[in-house]
Design goal:
Distance between the termini of chain B: 13 Å
Keywords (chain A): Cell shape, Membrane, Transmembrane, Transmembrane helix
CATH topology of the largest domain in chain A: Thrombin, subunit H
Strand content of chain A: 25-35%
Largest sheet of chain B: none
Helix content of chain A: 25-40%
Order of helices and strands of chain B: HHHHHH
Number of helices of chain B: 6
Structural class of chain A: alpha+beta
Number of helices of chain A: 5
Largest sheet of chain A: 6 strands, antiparallel, barrel
Radius of gyration of chain B: 16 Å
Organism (chain A): Saonia flava
Number of strands of chain B: 0
Order of helices and strands of chain A: HHHHEEEEEEEEEEEEH
Family (chain A): Belongs to the MreC family.
InterPro entries (chain A): Cell/Rod_1, Cell/Rod_MreC_2, MreC, MreC_beta-barrel_core
Structural class of chain B: mainly alpha
Number of domains of chain B: 1
Oligomer: heterodimer
CATH class of the largest domain in chain A: Mainly Beta
Distance between the termini of chain A: 58 Å
Number of domains of chain A: 3
GO cellular component, one term (chain A): plasma membrane
């Protein structure tokens, strides 16, 4: 007993180090497997608050440019609206609405690490929940990963864990959108079969296979493509429409039918 | 004197964390270089203080940076490691001088100070980026990151430590 106590006293620093290190490693590894890390994220009250203050100051610096972007988007949407035939302009049937949108401000952005997360200033109080899509006027950004009462953490498409269903515009060939961490303006589209005719510059949009994003939201254009190791599938480099380094305003897509879709899918799984 | 010591270190802790997350995490020089200047806290921290307390403080420092930058617990693991290795590094760099009661980092030669700082930074970066590797196979890219980020961090730390010299 005496010896054990002596041992502990002599090596107390080392033991403390091992203890704290295992806590740190534990958190890291646990967050790798379950993607809901409750403590280690910037969507909590303290860091969310700090980022909110910082962003409320720094957002003044490029108000002009953001304004221009919003006007440009308005112009495009109005163009679409006025050229739409057959329906009266402001008729809306609420029973047909599948998606609703919430606007949010991005208060923290990162794109340099292999697992990038953004923080938005909307959370549970604004009925934002996990697995909702986040887009800007140019294209998709990511998926809501975790929400606190006032802030939300968004898993960026520039994240090695990100895997989004995407397809080539005007076709039905779809693949998965992943990121190889090399460039922040280029993501990869994989699992496109070899027989698909591809051209550099073709547009990539979101596919219909997910209940997170609506179909046909723009992502980017084909930068270059080559066959994978087995020579059966394409690896496509996609140049993003979004400038991931400069994001300010975003929209969160709420799929009102998602609960129903998930319920159906889980029923199917149970049957199988 | 005693409260002064706490005041300075708490102020340093808060300011370095804020500078790290609000300025240097957004730097993204050449796309991915974000210097980790908060390591300076562990460089500046008094030598003769309780080692256990020092490791706990390093743990908290890393934890705060982690929470702000959504990096799981990578910073925490790196800071705890350099806090644990710091006494041995000091003995290695400063030699016998380190044992004397009156020894201060500021009294060592410039070359020794710089070596010590560089060792702290390189160990921190190796732990940090190799923990990042664990989940993917981009070893070469991460090695490049270690080297390039080391240069950035080292330069920034030298500049900051020249700017805010610890007068004693």
């Amino acid at each position: 007993m005496q010896q054990i106590i002596n041992f502990i006293i002599r090596y107390k620093i080392t033991l403390l180090y091992i203890f704290l290190m295992s806590i740190a490693l534990g958190f890291t590894i646990q967050s790798h497997s379950f993607h809901k890390s409750k403590f280690f994220n910037s969507a909590n009250r303290i860091s969310g608050g700090v980022y909110n203050i910082s962003s409320s100051v720094s957002s003044y610096f490029d108000l002009g440019e953001q304004n221009k972007k919003l006007v440009e988007e308005n112009r495009r949407l109005r163009g679409l609206l006025y050229n739409k035939k057959g329906e009266s302009l402001f008729k809306m049937d609420t029973s047909n609405i599948n998606y609703t949108l919430t606007s949010a401000k991005i208060i923290k952005n990162s794109y340099a690490s292999p697992r990038n997360y953004l923080t938005i200033d909307k959370g549970r109080n604004d009925s934002i929940k996990q697995d909702m899509g986040v887009i800007t006027s140019n294209g998709i950004i990511g998926i809501v990963d975790y929400t606190s009462s006032k802030y939300g953490k968004v898993q960026s498409i520039l994240n090695t864990k990100s895997n989004i269903n995407a397809k080539i515009k005007n076709t039905d060939y779809f693949g998965s959108l992943v990121w190889n961490t090399e460039r922040y303006d280029v993501v990869q589209l994989i699992d496109i079969p070899r027989l698909v005719p591809l051209h550099v510059g073709d547009t990539i949009v979101t596919g219909a296979m997910s209940s997170i994003f609506p179909e046909n939201i723009p992502i980017g254009t084909i930068r270059k493509y080559d066959l994978n190791a087995s020579k059966t599938l394409y690896n496509i480099d996609v140049q993003l429409f979004n400038d991931m380094a400069n994001l300010k305003n975003a929209y969160i897509i709420i799929n009102t039918n998602r609960a129903e879709i998930l319920e159906l899918e889980s029923k199917l799984e149970n049957v199988q | 004197m005693f409260s002064n010591f706490y005041f300075i270190n708490i102020l340093r802790f808060v300011l370095l964390v804020l500078v790290q997350v609000l300025v240097f995490n957004k730097l993204n020089f050449l796309g991915y270089i974000n210097p980790f200047v908060y390591i300076l806290f562990l460089y500046w921290y008094p030598i003769k203080e309780n080692k256990g307390a020092f490791i706990v403080i390093a743990f908290l420092l890393g934890l705060f940076v982690d929470i702000f930058s959504d990096t799981l617990a990578l910073h925490t693991a790196a800071t705890v490691t350099i806090a644990f290795l710091r006494p041995s590094l000091m003995r290695f760099v400063f030699g016998v001088n380190y044992e004397f009661q009156s020894f201060r980092i500021s009294s060592a030669t410039k070359a020794q100070q710089i070596t010590f700082l560089a060792l702290l930074i390189i160990i921190h970066h190796i732990v940090f980026f190799s923990l990042e590797i664990l989940s993917f196979s981009n070893a070469l890219l991460i090695l490049k990151k270690i080297i390039v980020t080391f240069c950035g961090t080292f330069l920034m730390c030298i500049l900051l430590s020249l700017l805010f010299k610890v007068e004693k």
